[in-house]
Amino acid sequence: MPRCSLIAPDFTRYRAVSTLVREIFKRHTDLVEPLSLDEAYLDVTENKTGLPTARVLRAHTRADTRGADLTASAGVAPNKFLAKNRF
Predict the structure, then answer these.
(1) Catalytic (active-site) positions
(2) How many CB atoms lie within 10 A of CB 46?
(3) Is this model's pTM higher than 0.85 or not?
(4) 85: DSSP letter
(5) C-alpha span between 40 and 33 (Å, rounded)
(6) Of 62, 51, 50, 71, which Cα lies nearest the Cα of 24?
(7) In this predicted structure, what is the pLDDT of residue 19?
Protein backbone atom coordinates (compact mmCIF):
# COMPACT_ATOMS: atom_id res chain seq x y z
CA MET A 1 0.00 0.00 0.00
CA PRO A 2 1.44 3.43 -0.91
CA ARG A 3 2.48 5.66 1.95
CA CYS A 4 2.59 9.41 2.12
CA SER A 5 4.65 11.60 4.42
CA LEU A 6 3.47 15.12 5.05
CA ILE A 7 6.18 17.62 5.88
CA ALA A 8 5.30 21.00 7.32
CA PRO A 9 6.56 23.92 5.22
CA ASP A 10 9.37 26.08 6.58
CA PHE A 11 8.59 29.49 5.11
CA THR A 12 11.21 31.21 7.27
CA ARG A 13 13.88 29.04 5.65
CA TYR A 14 12.33 29.48 2.18
CA ARG A 15 12.45 33.28 2.53
CA ALA A 16 16.06 33.18 3.77
CA VAL A 17 17.22 31.04 0.85
CA SER A 18 15.19 33.16 -1.58
CA THR A 19 16.94 36.28 -0.27
CA LEU A 20 20.32 34.60 -0.71
CA VAL A 21 19.50 33.59 -4.30
CA ARG A 22 18.37 37.14 -5.11
CA GLU A 23 21.70 38.43 -3.79
CA ILE A 24 23.42 36.06 -6.21
CA PHE A 25 21.28 37.51 -9.02
CA LYS A 26 22.24 41.06 -7.99
CA ARG A 27 25.92 40.20 -8.51
CA HIS A 28 25.11 39.83 -12.20
CA THR A 29 22.46 42.50 -12.84
CA ASP A 30 20.52 45.20 -11.04
CA LEU A 31 17.50 44.39 -13.21
CA VAL A 32 15.83 41.64 -11.17
CA GLU A 33 12.04 41.25 -11.23
CA PRO A 34 10.97 38.78 -8.50
CA LEU A 35 7.85 36.72 -9.22
CA SER A 36 7.72 34.52 -6.12
CA LEU A 37 10.05 33.03 -3.53
CA ASP A 38 11.62 30.76 -6.13
CA GLU A 39 11.32 32.61 -9.42
CA ALA A 40 12.49 35.87 -10.98
CA TYR A 41 13.16 37.50 -14.32
CA LEU A 42 16.63 38.94 -14.87
CA ASP A 43 17.72 41.24 -17.65
CA VAL A 44 21.33 40.28 -18.28
CA THR A 45 21.72 42.14 -21.55
CA GLU A 46 24.53 44.03 -19.86
CA ASN A 47 25.54 41.82 -16.96
CA LYS A 48 28.04 43.04 -14.37
CA THR A 49 30.42 40.09 -14.67
CA GLY A 50 30.74 39.67 -18.41
CA LEU A 51 30.49 35.90 -17.85
CA PRO A 52 28.03 33.53 -19.59
CA THR A 53 25.27 34.35 -17.15
CA ALA A 54 22.89 31.36 -17.18
CA ARG A 55 25.65 28.82 -16.60
CA VAL A 56 27.42 30.96 -13.99
CA LEU A 57 24.18 31.74 -12.12
CA ARG A 58 23.40 28.06 -11.90
CA ALA A 59 26.87 27.26 -10.59
CA HIS A 60 26.81 30.13 -8.07
CA THR A 61 23.35 29.14 -6.87
CA ARG A 62 24.47 25.55 -6.32
CA ALA A 63 27.73 26.56 -4.60
CA ASP A 64 26.34 29.38 -2.43
CA THR A 65 23.30 27.46 -1.20
CA ARG A 66 25.03 24.21 -0.25
CA GLY A 67 22.90 22.31 2.17
CA ALA A 68 19.67 23.76 0.80
CA ASP A 69 19.54 21.06 -1.90
CA LEU A 70 18.56 23.53 -4.61
CA THR A 71 18.62 23.14 -8.32
CA ALA A 72 18.29 26.02 -10.72
CA SER A 73 17.13 26.38 -14.27
CA ALA A 74 17.24 29.35 -16.60
CA GLY A 75 15.15 30.16 -19.61
CA VAL A 76 17.20 32.42 -21.86
CA ALA A 77 15.33 34.37 -24.51
CA PRO A 78 14.81 37.87 -25.89
CA ASN A 79 11.55 38.29 -23.89
CA LYS A 80 9.81 37.01 -20.74
CA PHE A 81 7.22 34.92 -22.55
CA LEU A 82 9.81 32.89 -24.42
CA ALA A 83 12.09 32.61 -21.40
CA LYS A 84 9.25 31.23 -19.27
CA ASN A 85 7.74 28.88 -21.82
CA ARG A 86 9.79 26.05 -23.20
CA PHE A 87 8.58 24.74 -26.51
Answers:
(1) 39
(2) 9
(3) no
(4) -
(5) 5
(6) 62
(7) 92
Q: Which residues contact 80 (CB under 8 A, 6 or more apart)?
A: 41
Backbone angles phi, psi at 29, to 5 degrees: -160, 150
- Return all residues near 58 (Cβ < 8 A) that are at least 6 apart: 72, 73, 74
User: From CA 9, how far away is CA 86, in angstroms rounded?
Assistant: 29
How far apart CA 77 and CA 29 sit, in angstroms, is 16
Q: Is 25 in contact with 47 (CB distance < 8 Å)?
A: no
Cα distance between residue 70 and residue 43, in whole Å: 22
Q: Which residues contact 61 (CB under 8 A, 6 or more apart)?
A: 21, 24, 70, 72
Which residues is 34 bridged to in the sheet?
A: 40
DSSP 46: T
pLDDT value of residue 86 = 66
Convert the pLDDT of each residue in 12-65 to its tens digit: 988 998 999 899 889 989 999 998 888 899 888 888 888 877 888 888 888 888
